[in-house]
């Protein structure tokens, strides 16, 4: 006789099919449609999660455009992108003992890790060889019911609702990880090219909460208003200022920034970042430009003369994500988002693709 493993005796009815945003015509002319797809069955070590909310991340668009040096989603038989979701566990695999049906759970970009290699042992598990990407190699959070390995599923703390938790799973934890890696200290100048975007606007808040002085760089009055509201000490509008780097140096005591977190994805953002740093300053590469379109770096003379550091940081680990969620639980990190109903998921993707989004777009699976 089959024995249901529900952890606590709670049963949540699981339908046979569910709604999913799926990619059609992968490549430069892709579009997203909402379809009915089968609800997957958890393997022995998985949990099945019902998404309540998913954020829309520009990486999803990269995967659908196929402009990163990665095999396409279709190579893995995946049709739904999405890697920043929040919901509730509705079914447990037979071996799962540390989750209960009804527990709140989040989906972040890294699907799993081996926990048996040097990278996993040193807090770099997102670089592990066995750390695939959800929404690329496994169906992602545009699908309402998805699987996640129990050991790598994120718990969502009390006081953080699903619309807040979703975007923190990728953007918030990614920029938390980058700020942590930068080693910047309270009082240091942190500069965010792309400060009004999904990742940048959370970086501004976290850096402020950590006691740094923050300069936002972005284009347009809407982004400026958002950045100043979130606590930027200064804002540089690249559509209005002739030399952005010069302006940043002027603001940062005439010496330049201690850290420049490039959350923008343009070649110009990457090209100007080293020019904004002070001696010993750091450029953190966070935003993903389409392959071959940008270079992070500078003339070696600048590296030597400025003791320049250029560092790439990836998405957040389990711990980074936990920490970022804790900032939210304490009211220090509040993603700014616009909610779209599920039927309008394709419109949300199009809007982000146009580049005109201040903050984050989040899809509500229950409306
Ligand atoms: Zn993302
Ligand atoms: Zn590993």
UniProtKB/TrEMBL annotation:
Signal peptide: none annotated. It comes from the Eukaryota. Keywords: Metal-binding, NAD, Oxidoreductase, Zinc. Pfam families: ADH_N (PF08240), ADH_zinc_N (PF00107). GO terms for molecular function: alcohol dehydrogenase (NAD+) activity; zinc ion binding. Its cofactor is Zn(2+). InterPro entries: ADH-like_C, ADH-like_N, ADH_Zn_CS, ER, GroES-like_sf, NAD(P)-bd_dom_sf. GO terms for cellular component: cytoplasm. The keyword Signal does not apply. Residues 27-363 form the Enoyl reductase (ER) domain. SUPFAM superfamilies: GroES-like (SSF50129), NAD(P)-binding Rossmann-fold domains (SSF51735). Belongs to the zinc-containing alcohol dehydrogenase family. This is GroES-like protein. It comes from Aaosphaeria arxii CBS 175.79.
């Amino acid at each position: 006789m089959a024995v249901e493993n529900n952890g606590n005796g709670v049963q949540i009815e699981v339908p046979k099919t569910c709604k999913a945003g799926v990619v059609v015509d992968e490549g430069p002319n892709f579009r997203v449609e909402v379809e009915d797809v089968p609800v997957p069955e958890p393997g022995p070590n998985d949990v099945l999660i019902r998404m309540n909310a998913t954020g829309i991340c520009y990486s999803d668009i990269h995967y659908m455009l196929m402009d990163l040096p990665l095999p396409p989603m279709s190579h893995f038989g995946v049709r739904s992108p999405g890697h920043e979701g929040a919901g509730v566990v509705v079914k447990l695999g037979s071996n799962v003992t540390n989750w209960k049906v009804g527990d709140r759970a989040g989906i972040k970009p890294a699907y799993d890790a081996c926990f048996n290699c040097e990278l996993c042992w040193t807090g770099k598990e997102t670089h592990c060889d066995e750390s695939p990407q959800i929404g690329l190699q496994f169906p992602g959070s545009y699908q309402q019911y998805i699987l996640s390995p129990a050991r790598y599923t994120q718990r969502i703390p009390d006081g953080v609702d699903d619309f807040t938790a979703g975007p923190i799973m990728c953007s918030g934890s990614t920029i938390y990880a980058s700020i942590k890696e930068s080693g910047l200290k309270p009082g240091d100048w942190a500069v965010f090219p792309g400060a009004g975007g999904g990742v940048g606007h959370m970086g501004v808040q976290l850096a402020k909460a950590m006691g740094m002085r923050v300069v936002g760089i972005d284009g347009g009055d809407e982004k400026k208003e958002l950045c100043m509201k979130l606590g930027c000490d200064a804002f540089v509008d690249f559509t209005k200022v002739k030399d952005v780097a010069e302006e940043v140096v002027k603001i940062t005591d005439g010496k330049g920034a201690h850290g420049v977190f490039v959350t923008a994805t343009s070649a110009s953002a990457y090209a100007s970042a080293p020019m904004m740093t002070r001696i010993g300053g750091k450029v953190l590469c966070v935003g993903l430009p389409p392959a071959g379109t940008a270079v992070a770096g500078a003339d070696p003379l600048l590296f030597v003369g400025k003791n320049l550091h250029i560092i790439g940081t990836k998405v957040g680990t389990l711990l980074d994500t936990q920490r970022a969620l804790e900032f939210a639980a304490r009211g220090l990190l509040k993603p700014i988002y616009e909610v779209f109903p599920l039927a309008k998921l394709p419109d949300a993707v199009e809007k982000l693709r146009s580049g005109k989004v201040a903050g984050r777009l989040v899809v509500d699976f229950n409306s």
